[in-house]
Every structure is written in C-alpha cells, then in structure tokens.
Amino acid sequence: MNQLPGLDATFLHLETPQMPMHVGALHNFELSADYRGDFVADMRRHMAARLPFAPALRQKLATMPLNFSNPVWIDAEPDLEEHIVAIKLPAMRKGGNVQAALHAQVGKLHPVLLKRDRPLWKFHVFTGLPNGPQGHRRYAMYTQLHHAAVDGQAAVALAQAILDLGPEGRELGAAPERKARRPVGMTDMLRGAFANQLDLMLNAVKAIPSAVTVLSQMAAQKAGDSAGGTARALVSRFKGGGARARSVSNLALAPRTRLNATVSATRSFASISLPLAALNTARRKHKASLNDAVLMICSGALRRHFLRHGPLPRKPMVAGVPVSTRAKGDTTSNNQATMTVVSLGTHIADPAKRLAYVLAATAAMKSNVGSIKSLMPTDFPTLGVPWLMQSLGTLLAKAKVVERLPAIANVAISNVPGPTVPLYMAGAKMLSNYPTSIVVHGIALNITVQTYDQSLEFGLIACGKAMPEIAELADDIQAAFDEFEALPASVAVEAAPPPAPARAATRKAATKPKAPGKSVSKATRSSRASAPEKRRVAR
Question: Is 191 found in the same domain as 286?
Fold first, then answer.
C-alpha cells in the first residue's frame, strides 16, 4: 500500500477553491506549415504511448475510512478524452496579443480544482492561434499536475518521459514492468495505515537527539556570529560605486504589503523570457550564481513595481525560497523540498548596493541550508491530521487569519533547473515553457523560473485581487534585468573566513571587551578608510 507521505498530503488537506494546489506550465508549440493533422488527437496518441513510462499519471487517490489519516495511491487508467481537452481561442483582430490571451486563459483555468476521483492531472490544448513565421502552425498547452504527486524537480523528471529531443520521437523500448496489485479493501487500508503510522512515530522519536544537536549547533553559531561581530563580513566592491554589504540576517519578519492577504479564487498570470547567455555573462561579472541573479532581478522588479503602485515598504521585502532535499539522480514522483527565506534588499535604491545586499543575504541563507534540510522531514505521523488541516484551510479563508499574523514572506520565488536544449511533443517543437505554481493565504504572488533551451522562463502568478496588474510586473522584470546587465563588473567579491566556534568567540569577547562603536574587524577598518570615496560617490 502506497500511503501519501505527510508533506505530499499537506497539499491535499489545505486545498480549497481559493487555494488550488496544482502546478504546471504554459507551453507554446510550433509545427511545420504543411501540417494538417488534429493536434489534440495527436497529443492523446502521444500520451497513450508515454503513460507506461509515467507512473505518476496512472494513479489516483483512495481515501482512508473516516479520513482519519492520509489517503493512498491506487492504480488507475486515465481517460485521455477527459485529461486532454481542446480549447479554441476566441478570434482576435490582426496584430492582437496572442500571449496575453493565453495568459488570460491560464488565469481563468488555474482556480479550477482537479477532480479527485481520477488521476490528478489535466492538459488544456489551445487551438485557433495565428500561424507563426513562414506559415508555421502554432498551438499552446496549459498543464495541471497536483503538487501532492510532484514537486518541481519531479515534474522535470516526468517531462523527460513524455518529451523528445526531435520531432520524430524516440524508441521507447520495453515499458517498465507494472506489478499487479489486488484491490485495496478497508481492512487492508486500516492495517497498512496503522503500521505505517507506527513506523513514522518510532522514526520521529529516533530523530529527536540529532534534531537537538542541529538546533544546538545553529544556536552556537548564532552566538558566535554575535560575538565575532563582522568576522563573517561579506564584502562586495563595485567600480565607481564603492558598495559594501556586511553579513545580512534573513531572520527578520517581512514588512506587510498588499501581497500578505487572504487570497481569492481568482488568478492573474504573466510570463517573460530572458536570454540565458546574456544572463550568465552578467552574473559571472559579479561572481553570482544563477539563483543569486534571479533574486536580484526579482528584487529590482518588485522595487520598481511597488514604487509605482505602492506603497514600497521601508524594510526589505522577503522571499520564501523552496530548497530541494532530493538526492542526485532521485526521480521519485513525490515532494522532497523545504522552505527558507531570503531578504531581497528592495529598500535600497542603488542597484550595485542592492546586489551586494542580495549576495550577502543568499550567502547567509546557504550557510544554514544544510541544517534546515536535516530538520524538515518529508513524512511524519498523520493520525487525525486530515481533519485538522482541512479545518485550518477553511479557517484561513473565512476568518482571514493571515491579516492578523506577522508576515514571514511577501513573495515565493522558485528556481527549477530545466533542459537547455529544445524539446518536442507529439512531433511539435516546444518554443517556451512558462511555469505556473501556487499562491497561498499570506503570500499572494509566486514567481517560478525554469531554464529552457536558450532562455530563462519566468512564470508569474498572483491572486487576481491582490495583483491584477501582473503583466506590468513582467515588464518590470525585463527592466530589472537590463539594469542588472548594465552594472559594471565588481572589483572583488570575497567572503571572510567562517566564524570561530561559539565558545572561542565568546571567550575572546569576554577577555578583550571593545568600547561601543569601536572597530572590531579588518572589514570595518577598510570601510572607514574608504569614507572619503563614499562621500564623493554620494555627491
């Protein structure tokens, strides 16, 4: 019996009409000008051949008696007439914005929940698109996959099973052997559930000592950081700007914005592509990772957007960032991720200084990721949890609890690695792959990015009431990228050595007390030495 792990089932229990819990993407496809087939029928035939290689698409839920614990996955044969449906776009005037029309369709379809009496996925194929250059036939597709079945990286692994490297497809080989399963009765489900819950409880008890050790180490490191002062300073110097950023804490609460609201059952969606080669060239100038660059671009876009639509918080906005806990090579169709937060520096006007701030914030986040991963299990005991979590989901919506609670983050930003070569499906070339993800009560905007071919694809989805003007935010992302690309190369990006153990740092602080305001590190002395230069820049 395959019972859903605790993390996977959470996406089921918290789902409401205001908070759909499926992910997916908006794809654009192109076929040759002489194509005269039925693309929807071709897609169904293609998927029928690929289903044996995609077990996540051939299972549905069976609910536990009285819903006292998490449901189980059972075998199912999807009806492709129901799972792959055709939608004809309304006729547009010549020169009309096709992509905007597709965005509107995604905004309308995303709030529609997937039916739980069948496999939790659906493909919406759009027809009636104007032809592309040289008369190439154009189609689009919006996919929905429930987050209970896949996370971002599991979805990428699933795509590898159903997509091809060329229009002619590939030899599939022998389908994986599918073990015959006898029907699961109530007695089997109860017996299996109690055995599974007992194992999880025992594992949770065994994990307590290691969790205590990790928490103690994190507390000791924080104490050492406080005692060591600027020993962990991350210094970034930019030509002509003299921008500097010391270690940045990501532990502060987020400022409250209009995104920290109870979400409605409406969605707005927008997409944008950035050239991957230019982005990589720009980030390498500053010794930044791709994830650093994404956060910097989102920071600049949010600052621009909130300056225009307001109000821009005086404190830096904070991003909730998923962190994968998946082992390399693991393609299991489940969720293996946790969440951390990163301060975005949106309160800083100077882009060079903001980049230094973001680099310091991501460095601080990375230093704690390992500890966070070990503390966040993907499975845990769930007896009675479905009742509690479903009640919680309803309470969050009706009582508007999030408006009364401190804000942890303002926006979710996720960077999912994807293919860097063009892919094909049912003979059609996939031109773009814009991710769609989840917004939740209290975080009404989600920005998910994925590399595809020669581009970095941004999918922006928001509560339609909290941010109806999301198309403008896509334009702001383009402007923020242009700003990032124009920044001069940094002179140096260097990290100070890691802090001494907490005891040593505390002992040193106790034996050699410093007067308030005195310099305690080389980075601080360097900062004072360059004060005249800073004044010149300010002028």
Answer: no
